[in-house]
Amino acid sequence: MRSYRALIRATARAALAYRLNLLLGLGAVLVQLIALLAVWQVILAQSPVNGFTWPQMRAYLLVAFAAGTVVSLMGDFRMAFRILDGDVALDLVKPIDYQRARFAEAIGGLWIEVVLIAVVVGVTLALTGGVDVPAGPGLALFIASMLLLVPLKFLIVYVSTLACFWTQNFMGVQWARLAVVNLFSGALIPLAFLPGWLATTAQWSPFAGLTSTPALIFLGRVDPGHGLVLVGVQLAWVLALWFGARLVWQAALRRLTVNGG
């Protein structure tokens, strides 16, 4: 455990050391948030659409922003480049579990992300008005959903990055992951705006737990019973992906190319 705690601290220090990269990444997400807020304000100015009012959509977008910022400092590109260069072989001789080590690195930047989320959400609420916060069971389910989002997002990024063992290309993998996640998580538009069959498929996929599930719970668009089911789906996907990632890692080791290429 001491080794993993050291990784958590090292990642936090590295994030602070590369403040420019951190701010540039935050700036990109902020531009997307501002653009989406402007677009949806115009769309919903006259009447609700698919049951969403403008105040609800504003809250939805803020939750989506928070969810998108969490685990954004994971450094999947560093992991990918070590795979592509063959340097990942050096990680195999370290007396720590590779998957747990990468998770520790993801957790290392979490506190910085939480601070950034608090600042951005606070400023946005001050400029655009407050939102209704769920109470009682709804708030507890929202917190549980946001906590489960951390390992869930890590695992989706981690497993997709392991694909570099086969593709020998990171950018293609990253673009494909972003496209799938943005559509099926509800990050770009709520899943309610998708065709019925596609929305149902997406809601039961692991991607819904990255945005749609915590957002719907926060807005109170699902009752506590349904919310508990959605959180249970998140937990089930975390467990399935954690152990599934072990199998992918074992298969990836057989593809390891020490000399790169």
TrEMBL record:
Transmembrane residue ranges: 20-45, 57-75, 103-127, 139-166, 178-198, 228-249
Alphabetized InterPro entries for the sequence: ABC-2_transporter-like
First and last residue of the signal peptide: none
Entry coiled-coil feature ranges: none
Protein keywords: Membrane, Transmembrane, Transmembrane helix
Pfam annotation, one family: ABC2_membrane_6
Taxonomic superkingdom: Bacteria
PANTHER family noted in UniProt: SLR1174 PROTEIN, SLR1174 PROTEIN-RELATED
Protein name: ABC-2 type transport system permease protein
Organism: Actinoplanes auranticolor
Record lineage: Bacteria, Bacillati, Actinomycetota, Actinomycetes, Micromonosporales
